């Protein structure tokens, strides 16, 4: 009897671990599978990290917020509006909009600073060293991030187009 109980407990533990790993996998790819593709204007920030490797770090005009109404750790919702071929951020809020496409982000920074940064999960594009350095040079002239946004506001970076897009 004890051996059977032990086997069932091990099977339950294994099943729970597999379910958690599957949930992490699905959560990461959810925006790529179900998201709507949009384009956002971006600018480069920094191409390398000693610990994570080579990448192009991207910044967006809507990544910096005034401190009024938002504190570090707050979840914000940024409605997006289409402007030609690109989408632009509108006024952020604490609640998701009832309709339209929006990004879900988290405020970071210090509570006593003049402005806070918001991260949306679309701030870095990893690439091999040579490609990251080439991308850094090309991004100086402006670029457009191709992003997929899921219905819940989660976003995933697909690629970066270095040719400027006319509005």
Whole-angstrom Rg: 20 Å
> Which runs of at least 5 residues are low in confidence (pLDDT < 50)?
none
Number of domains: 2
Determine the N-to-C terminus distance.
71 Å
- Range of strand content: 35-45%
Beta strands, count: 10
Q: Strand arrangement, largest sheet?
A: 8-2-1-9-10
Shape summary: globular
Helix content: 25-40%
Total number of helices? 2
How many strands, which pairing sense, and closed or not: the largest β-sheet?
5 strands, antiparallel
Query: Secondary-structure element order, as H and E?
Result: HEEEEEEEEHEE
Structural class: alpha+beta
Mean pLDDT: 81
Task: Describe this structure as you would to a colleague.
By secondary structure, this protein is α+β, with helices and mostly antiparallel strands. The chain has two domains: about 1-35; about 35-160, no CATH class. The chain is about 25% helix and about 40% strand. The chain has helices spanning about 1-35, 130-140, and strands spanning about 35-50, 55-60, 65, 75-85, 85-90, 100-110, 115-120, 125, 145-150, 155-160. The strands form two sheets. It has a five-stranded antiparallel β-sheet. It has a five-stranded antiparallel β-sheet with strand order 3-7-6-4-5, with no helix packed on it.
């Amino acid at each position: 009897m004890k051996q059977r109980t032990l086997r069932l407990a091990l099977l339950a533990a294994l099943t729970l671990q597999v379910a958690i790993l599957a949930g992490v996998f699905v959560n990461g790819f959810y925006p790529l599978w179900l998201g709507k593709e949009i384009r956002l204007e971006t600018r480069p920030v920094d191409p390398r990290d000693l610990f994570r490797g080579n990448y192009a770090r991207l910044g967006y005009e809507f990544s910096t917020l005034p401190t009024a109404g938002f504190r570090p750790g707050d979840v914000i919702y940024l409605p997006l509006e289409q402007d030609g071929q690109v989408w632009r951020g509108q006024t952020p809020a604490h609640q998701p909009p009832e309709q339209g496409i929006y990004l879900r982000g988290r405020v970071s920074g210090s509570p006593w600073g003049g402005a806070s940064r918001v991260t949306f999960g679309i701030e870095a594009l990893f690439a091999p060293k040579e490609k990251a350095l080439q991308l850094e040079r090309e991004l100086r002239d402006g670029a457009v991030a191709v992003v997929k946004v899921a219905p819940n506001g989660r976003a995933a970076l697909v690629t970066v187009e270095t040719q400027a897009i006319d509005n």
